[in-house]
Write a structure and sequence with these properties.
Number of helices: 5
Shape: globular
Order of helices and strands: HHHHH
Helix content: 40-55%
Largest sheet: none
């Protein structure tokens, strides 16, 4: 079975459609973010990835785990398991810490859709930044990560 990825136009379109179904009234299934905070979190995650929002530290901190980075990346991107719930996000992409706080919902959603378009656009107008847990990644890895990250948070709100 092929892996879902933002590099596949049909997979990307399904994500865009699901993002269009997000409402302020969407009920959280787990975690602490509101639906508005989730939209801003996804936007900030793309901004950091594309180098538009810097990490606060020169060295990207990672959650200490007793496993090699390549193994964690493989588990997250290639093993067909849902991402775990409740992992703490980095402050730079946490709307309650150093991330972007929610503004007007429709404007925040439009900004996310614009970032998604730029993230997937060819040729790229930016240079990939290292992922805080996985380090440097290929285009293939980033497109898979982007799909899985958005999917994870849409499922968080029942979508």
């Amino acid at each position: 079975m092929p892996k879902l990825t933002l590099s596949n136009p049909a997979d990307k379109q399904k994500i865009v459609e699901r993002l269009g179904k997000v409402q302020l009234s969407s009920s959280r299934q787990w975690g602490g973010m509101s639906v508005s905070q989730m939209i801003c979190h996804l936007s900030d995650s793309f901004r950091v990835t594309m180098g538009e929002k810097p990490w606060k530290t020169e060295r990207i901190s990672v959650t200490p785990i007793p496993l090699p980075r390549w193994f964690v990346k493989w588990m997250a991107l290639d093993v067909p398991l849902a991402w775990p719930h409740g992992l703490k996000t980095r402050p730079e992409v946490d709307p309650e810490m150093g991330g972007t706080p929610p503004g007007q919902f429709e404007a925040d959603r439009a900004a996310l859709l614009d970032l998604l378009q730029r993230f997937t656009q060819q040729p790229r107008e930016f240079k990939w930044q290292p992922h805080p847990m996985f380090g440097m990644m290929s285009d293939r890895d980033w497109m898979r990560w982007g799909y899985l990250h958005i999917d994870h948070h849409l499922r968080q709100f029942g979508l």
